[in-house]
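Q: I'm writing up a methods section and want to include an example of the input and output format. Could you take the sequence below and give the corresponding predicted structure tokens, formatted cleanly so I can copy it straight into the document?
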Amino acid sequence: MTPDFQKAHIAGVERVAAWSDVLDDINVFPVADGDTGRNLITSLTPLRYLEKNLEDTIHKLLLSARGNSGNIAVQFFSGFLTADSYATLAQAAKFGRDQAWQAVSKPLPGTMLTVLDTLVDFLAKCDFENKAEHVAKIIDLLEESVKSTPELLPKLKQAGVVDSGALGMYIYLEGFFKRLIGQHNEFRPISTIFQGLLEISPSYQVEMAEGYCVDTVIHYDKNAAEKVSRLSQYGESMVVIPHNNYLKVHFHTRNSREAKSRIESFGDVVHWTDDNIGSQIKDFTRLHPQGAIHIMTDAAGSVTREDARELGLTLLDSYIIAGKRSLPETLFSPAELYQTMRQGIRVSTSQASVFERHQYYQRVLTQYPKVLYLCVGSVFTGNHDVALNWKAQKDPDGRLTVIDTGAASGRLGAIVIATARYAAQSKDPQAVINFAKRAVEKCEEYVFLDKLKYLAAGGRLAKSSAFLGDVFHVKPIISPTAEGAKKVGAVKNRDGQLRYALAKLGGAFDSESSPFVMLEYSDNRDWVNETVKKEIQARLPSAEIMLQPLSLTSGVHMGPGTWAVAFLPPAVWD
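A: Here is the clean output for your methods example:
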């Protein structure tokens, strides 16, 4: 059998995606900022789309790398990707491992570096064999390596967890090696393998920290070694990866603005992101609600990763492809996406694979006794059928409930958020399911498009109709229903859109009502917040109005300038 390395790498990435929430939940080293899962997905997604030219893939990985774990992992894969046969696996793994160790200014055992050492040591002693028992031996050794991390890093032992980066690499390599030999559906749940090592001890005291986690890419002309040496003085947790005429740099700093000013003297800063460590630690220490039933949904509803963390939800992402870049939708920058669309660059969406979705279902059922999947409308995607088929085969006890909401974007988001809040206060799973069904029945949404051409680009409208509509400044109003997105009106301008929205709200509620209203924006947050929200507040002073970014799946199909309003009547809670 000829090994399919590309499919093996994809399986590894998809395994990490499914377990990324768990990685975030145990991320206490080097700081408790709860972002290892997010960073690994962001960093490794280019492995889903391997280029024929290896250098192109490595360059994409460098641009995507985020956080300590992501940058170290990317450096490993810059070597590991050179494997193209069973015979070259050992050499490629060693090359990548050596690169990873060299990238870190202060490398420590007890991280993913220890897992990579274990892999390299085994492959150096035993030629890789296409046998289930051989791969099982590799996985067993990697498992023990992950379990050793609390003994190597005191902070992990105090917290009572394994290292999240090490676990992420284990999850990846298990998916990779099993897919490589055709065992891609045979996985033991991570929560079973590492039982007792995936929940932070109640006695653990999180150390607060301030500053910023920076990832940047610098283009330079010469003297790379001298620049790498100087960079080490600008921050902590420094990872520096030279590649061609670029330096990929990750570090923690007290002052990101000052650090950026200094680093600009090294060369052209072509990419820069900084996350507030203090804010991330505060989010990490916030208790997750544990209600009667765990809620899972699709990110195609306007629910963010921040919402999911606050409400204890599981989100299933679709993927956004913009030009040559692809990311899960909740990790793609909305500003970058809408700018790309306005520039005329092709943007599209794709579903997660069936394998990835199955991995999510397996994960949540190993973590929670009962799960409610509020699925995006079956008229929009095949997610509902995929979930039901898996349930029929893998859920004999009926612990997973799947509801076809018939909804997307803000209508789905409002249903999910309201249901999650209700679940957090309820001890009765069936009561939560009944609440969700009432919310599906009662929730309405109206979406206001700025341009028709984006619907046409996605094949959802004849291009000639889009052209004529835009020429005559027709701004359609649509409503997502169980039968699909229906056109319910059209206006000439923003003022007309606002009048339509206020009329719908006024027809549904009197001034004393207290509905739950979700306002969604694309690249027009200021206008939606300062104009639309204030007008609704003036008419419905008792309403709860939640300002949300439009799901990027919806944003791709509807385009920049889109906004929407979804609402639930207070009677749903009765």
